[in-house]
Amino acid sequence: MDKRVSKNNDASNGRKKTSGKPAAGPVVNIRDYMPKRDFSAVWGHLFAILALTIAIYSNGMNGAFVGDDVSFIKDNIAIRSLANIPDFFLSPKSLAAGDTEWGTTIYRPLRTVSFAVDYAIFGLKPYGYHVVNLILHLGAAVSLYFVVLGLFNIGGVAFLSALLFAVHPVHVEAVTWIASRADLIGMVLFNLTFLAYMRYKDGRGRAWLAASLASSFLSYMGKETMVFLPGLIILYDYATRNRRPMLDTVKANIGSWVFFTIVCAAYLFIRMSITGRMSQNQGWWGGTAYSNFLMMAEAAATYIRLMVVPYGFTFHYIIDPVYSVFAPKVIVSLVVIVASLILMAYAHFRNRLVFFALLWFYLGLVPIANIIPISFSMMAERYIYAASAGPIIAAGYGLYRLYRYAGEKSSGVQKLAAGAIIVLVLIFSVQVVVRNDDYKDEFAFYSSAVAVSPGSPPSNKGLADQYSSRKEYAKAIEYYEKAIALDPGYVEALLGEAVAYRETGELLKALSAARKAAIVEEKVAAMKPKNPLIKFNLGNIYKEMGDYDGARVEWEAAVSLNPEYSEALNHLGIYWQLKGDNAKALPMFERSLKANPFNAETHYNAALLYETGGDSAKARVHFKSFMELAGPEYAYEVEALKGKGY
Asked: Is 16 helix (H, G, I), strand (E, B) or coil?
């Protein structure tokens, strides 16, 4: 037995025992988070964690913007000015690109603030954003180290726990996918909340409680899934109560529990007031609450599998609807869950801190378990970034005990145990390096997702989008069709197919796909806001067919759904310009540029209009803006303007 651990398990926070029996629970010495005798060891631990983590994530730093990065960063013009920071807390539509619904359903203002700061420093160079994500992950690992050191007061447990957290491959999505930064921000603040609370409990003064409460509120602003923090605070006080009667524990801590609950409730009230909703308006998975809860069991079991035996990673997991508790996969899932609960019950009697760490996982699952259904996916790796810390802490403690127990046998056995731990860390590290490659660009991102999860509609649709961007429209249509076959109501896939058919000149097929999208949207209108992109694309198809008046009707409908839809406003300006009605065209261009001052095409069209009207000064201003913003597709126009002296 490890003498230090045995002593801890028999102590009572420094008080003498009142009987000869062992203490009923674990004992935590949190009076000194960094004992002087361990000072050099702590720095050695942190250096090893930081060095290995930077090494294994380095190949992910050159990745492009992928998936939701486009909506939240690349196309989100709000982050291009730090003056917009107050809006990130008050106006949900500033949190994502204006032509998406994310800005009205996802409220994570601290993430958007960080993106605005990144843009001010790095512009639209993904490398800088990746570096910030990695720094935040390192911050989460380091702060977790001190949380565990405060819990167990054993440097080896803190080191192994933080190291496993840093290199576990289930965290790659949260770290290497830039859009997942909210999980990183939330987790860092989550850990700081705990550290401050531990200091408060150690008698360091109420200022630490105030700091902990403030940090908890900020962690929610980082990501809403951190709202399980009050429950974990209560669990912590229970787990560290030792032989104290439960009623005395409640009386001693009820005040702080109420404060944490009030802060959490205040956040939820603010969120509801600003977004007008608590979830992303996803109906029950499987169509019924019963099916939804059965699917939750499979998702929970899959999370456990990813933690224990990590493999088969993908950005979109498929949990097929089930309608009977006797379905084989439900039975298997329940067996896995029951086994984990039995392990927790055993830990409750053996070591309350290990019990605390294991139950941390289930508390962390509550906000992401789809009790309130989450849109897009029943589960995702990034969802458990915070929840995973609990079982990882338990694993760190278990590996430490294994190492010490092996040392009691012989030095040779201890070396074998150390070797096994090193092999485990290396396996995890290699998986991280390999998984990083899935995020190097969007084609790799969606190709890997389809390879692992071919039955995923979003994965097939995403790969189709990539083929379409490469102008490989036949392949694009093939994957759009796969996505639609898997989900006939997939509006975005129908829209993508319509665009692909339009580009190949098959306008009747394009019109059919776009109309199907509109019909499907009408059926789900009660669940989510109407998508102006449908009307916009219908207008584009009508334009290609030569029906300009039909196109105008659809573009106006798109603008009615989103008055700041820059592209639709630009198209309306072109329509009126072609009609010779410059008095109607100019306001459209002005509104387009007000909504998106970075719209190069609108600057060009407005410049032509001013030039035709004889206002050469304004024409020059807009031509220059066009030249600064124009992408490679406008190379001919830029060269022509240079030839004219612009």
From this structure: coil
- Residue 241: inside a domain, yes or no? yes
Instruction: Report H helices in 309-388.
Output: 328-350, 352-365
- Distance between the two ends of the chain, CA-based, in angstroms? 80
Query: What is the secondary structure of 221-242 as a DSSP string?
Result: HH-GGGGGHHHHHHHHHHHT-T
DSSP state of 366: G
Which residues, at least 6 apart from 12, have a Cβ–Cβ distance to it below 8 Å?
23, 27, 242, 243
| 3-state class percentages of the chain: helix first, strand second, coil last, to nearest 5 | 75, 0, 25
CB atoms within 10 A of CB 385: 29
Please give the structure tokens belonging to residue 532. 């102006």
* 41 burial via Cβ count (<10 Å: 0-12, 13-18, 19+): middle
Structural domain span for residue 256: 183-277
- Is the per-residue pLDDT at 171 higher than 80? yes
Task: Give the single-character DSSP code of 28.
Answer: -
Write 41-50 long-range contacts (CB < 8 A, 24+): 41/155, 42/149, 42/155, 45/145, 45/155, 45/158, 45/159, 45/162, 46/142, 46/145, 48/159, 48/163, 49/138, 49/141, 49/142, 49/145, 49/159, 49/162, 49/163, 49/166, 50/138, 50/142
Give a yes or no: residue 527 inside a domain: no
The C-alpha atoms of residue 287 and residue 298 are separated, in whole angstroms, by: 16
- SS3 at position 255: helix
Q: In this structure, what DSSP letter does residue 52 have?
A: H
Q: Which amino acid is at 74?
A: K
pLDDT, tens digit, 9 for 90 and up, residues 543-579: 888 888 988 998 999 899 888 889 999 999 999 998 8
| Secondary structure, 3-state, 88-114 | HHHCHHHHCCCCCCHHHHCCCHHHHHH
Measure Cα distances from 635 to 180, 605, 609 in Å: 34, 16, 21
- CB-CB contact of 403 with 156 (8 Å): yes
CA distance 564 to 98: 7
Q: Which of 225, 195, 227 is nearest to 208 (CA)?
A: 195
Give the 3-state secondary structure of residue 12. strand
* pLDDT, tens only, 305-338: 999 999 899 988 888 888 999 999 999 999 999 9
Confidence bin at 282 (pLDDT 50/70/90): low
Measured torsion, CA atoms of residues 149, 152, 155, 161, in degrees rounded to the nearest 10: -80
pTM of the model: 0.87
Confidence of residue 517 (pLDDT cuts 50, 70, 90): confident
Residues β-bridged to residue 12: 15
Residue 253 lies in a domain: yes
How is residue 261 written in tokens?
């609950």
In a domain, 250, yes or no: yes
Which residues, including other chains, have CB under 8 Å from residue 608's CB and lie 6 or more apart?
577, 619
Residue 35 has pLDDT above 60, yes or no: no
Residue 616: pLDDT over 80? yes
8 Å CB contact between 484 and 473? no
- Name residues whose C-beta falls within 8 Å of residue 262's C-beta, 6 or more positions apart in sequence: none
644 token code pair: 């004219």
The count of structural domains within the chain is 1
Q: What is the pLDDT of residue 374?
A: 72
What residues pair up with 421 in beta bridges, in sequence order?
none
Amino acid code (one letter) for 27: V
* Host H or E run for residue 421: helix 411-436
